[in-house]
Amino acid sequence: MPRPSGHPPLRRAVLTLLPSLAVCALLLTLYLLQPPLLRQLDNEIYDLFLTSRQAPPPSDVPVVVDIDEKSLTAYGQWPWPRYLLARLIETLTQNGAACVALDILLAEPDRSSPDLLRRRLRKDFGVELDLGKLPPELADNDVLLAETLARNPVVLGVFMQFDPYKSLPSPLPRPTGLAEQTPAGAPTPRETVMRAVSALPPLAVFSRETPVGAINVAPSNDGVVREVPLLYRLGDNIYANLSLRALMRGLDAGTMILRSGPEGLTEIRVGPYRIPVSAQGLMRVPFKGPRGVYPYYSAADILERRVPPEQLEGRIVFVGTSAAGLQDIRATPFDAVYPGVEVHTAVVDAILNNDYIARPDYTPGIQALVILLAGLAAAAVFNFTRAFIYGPACLLLAGCALWGSGHLFAQGQFISPLYVILTILAQGLCILPVRFWQEEKQKRMLRQAFSRYVAPEVVARIAAREGDIFAGEEREVSVLFTDVRGFTGLSEKLAPQQVVMLLNRYFTPMTACVRDSGGTLDKFIGDAIMAFWNAPLDVPDHARRAVTAAVRMQHLLRELNPALEKEFGVRLRIGAGLHCGPVYVGNMGSEDLLDYTCIGDTVNLASRLEGMCAKYGAEVVVSGDMAARCDAAFYFRALDSIRVKGKSRPVSIFSVHEPEEARRREAEFASTAEALRLYAQGDFAEAGRLFDGLRESFRESTVFYELYSSRCAALCADPPEVWDGIWTFNSK
């Protein structure tokens, strides 16, 4: 059925789909570009997930030996003499430490070495310091430390530098042993991992035999450490960071295995552990809380042997500084003041616990697909629902995105819900004005279309109704037809302009009567009126309302006739026919010219019943179905059982009378009922006699009684072979 929406359904869907796809394309572009503001929001969501998750308990393998304020108070300011550092390392290894990793740079000679002090005194003051009584091994602290490093499982820290303008060439430390597994056509790890231009290595005397690891971390733009590079490229070699190298030393693993995929590095294997990393070799650090999650021991307590050996045996020990003045403080999602040495501890703990927060290789594709699906889902919700549920729908879809991302996060995978949520919000912001405009346009069109059909308050209810009011549907309605008796003859006596004025004067109160009763004015057909009830809105008592309107019309016409007679010299009489039943109702016509109407046998029968008014001398004729649906507000006088032309099913018809009139004519109606009973039984002679008597006694129904008197006389003269009490009309 045609619709007045201005666009066919397919065109409307296309018009709403195009901006939705444009929104999806915009969000996909933003996802690829990663602007700083959105990147920061993404980080905030990650931090929220991380700080809210139920993390596994930390392992006791990585521990921290902290050069804290207590240690500085006991042994003096930093840097300490190298012999003291050597003593700390010896004490840790003697207590069973599997590896000692120094989160400390040893890039310069020890200024407190006796030999260095002797040379400076000689140069600056010409004074010769006698070290003859000092054992040779104590003359140079750096040599002493080098000897300690050579016989103990130690990893030294090296600082990777990336600024070519600030970096100076430096000797390269010994590279980390590795093996590569790179599929054909995939980039090698050397092509994707972070590339340093130089390094600030330990003294050559330290790094000849001692492995090194980079102490760098990679804070985000907001200064918060969320991920750490595990690998660096320097020249043609790859180096592990301090935490990974310490784990290798603690596991006695001389080689790590690097696996690559189409985009770059995917995994690092160290012993039995598989570490998922990004193509650049970055690992997200699943911090378990603020500082102090892992075992902490003061360096002073270690040196003074106040820590039981069993607490260090088999442990990977990270030696670092937490004293505020030493400036090795980082920010993490949990803590704005987090010792840098504990970052390395958290990395090792995550590897040992197989506790990772990774972005799978397929994340970009999944993210793009989810953005597209979320955008289309939001577009569908926003385009095919009422505006008042947009807000809850947005919250529901965004909540689903958050829940899904949170569920994946608990499984160790982070797929950000940010762009999905932004897509949903953008779809709402894009489509909402359009939908409001469409709905307002629809309401204006409804008001324009139905203002001539129904009362203003009904128009308001129609505009507030959900769904397409113009779509065709099958409904049970009560249909009314009225017609002016003898209007053709009346119009011949009047000028055309007077005819128009007369009809306008007549239609005005009749139309108001239909509207006031909750009916829908269908059309004017010359001097006839068609109206129906129970469409487009539900009217539970539509039959009673329709009959009430028909009776009210007769009253209004009697009140109007004196004025019409005075102005036009005519008095009008109308007949009304009513029937209720199923019809098909909706907008019908062409796309350019539509009319809200109903069609069906119910309409045809109501029109035929209106024609029966003149034959039976009744003002209002209703069907038996109509009378059965009305309450006691009216008295329905049986008129006949008839079969109209074109219909095989007979219908009982009734005239309508108000209760006061029914009481006044009670005797007449009782006699009429008896006469009709005899007529239906086929006793035409006795029925004719009663109708003749009624015709003489009651002049209000002369036409009705004359009809039956002549009919009974004809049936007596020519009795039918079979009589069922039903009169068949062969004309309309």
Structure notes:
The protein has 732 residues and is α/β, with parallel strands linked by helices. It has four domains: 9-52 and 361-435, no CATH class; 62-353, no CATH class; 469-664, 2-Layer Sandwich (Alpha-Beta Plaits), CATH 3.30.70; 666-732, no CATH class. The chain is built from 24 helices and 28 strands. The two termini are 30 Å apart.
Write the layout of secondary structure elements.
Elements: H1 9-33, H2 36-52, E1 62-67, H3 69-75, H4 82-94, E2 99-105, H5 114-125, H6 141-150, E3 154-161, E4 178-181, H7 189-192, E5 194-196, E6 198-200, H8 204-207, E7 212-214, E8 218-219, E9 225-229, E10 231-234, E11 237-240, H9 242-250, E12 256-261, E13 264-270, E14 273-276, E15 282-284, E16 296-298, H10 299-303, E17 316-321, E18 329-330, E19 338-339, H11 340-353, H12 363-383, H13 390-410, H14 418-450, H15 456-464, E20 473-484, H16 487-492, H17 496-516, E21 520-525, E22 528-533, H18 542-568, E23 574-589, E24 594-599, H19 601-616, E25 620-623, H20 624-628, E26 635-643, E27 651-657, H21 659-664, H22 666-681, H23 684-697, H24 702-717, E28 727-728
Parallel strand pairs: 1-16, 1-17, 2-3, 2-17, 3-7, 4-12, 5-10, 23-25, 26-28
Antiparallel strand pairs: 3-6, 8-9, 9-15, 10-11, 12-13, 13-14, 18-19, 20-22, 20-23, 21-22, 23-24, 25-27, 26-27
Helix content: 40-55%
Count of helical segments? 24
Task: Find the count of extended strands (DSSP E, 2+ residues).
Answer: 28
- The 3D shape can be described as rod-shaped
Major sheet size, sense and barrel closure: 9 strands, mixed
Structural class, from secondary structure content?
alpha/beta
What is the domain tally?
A: 4
What is the terminal-to-terminal distance? Answer: 30 Å
Uncertain spans, ≥5 residues at pLDDT below 50? 1-8
Q: What does the average pLDDT come to?
A: 85
Q: Using only CA atoms, what is the Rg? A: 49 Å
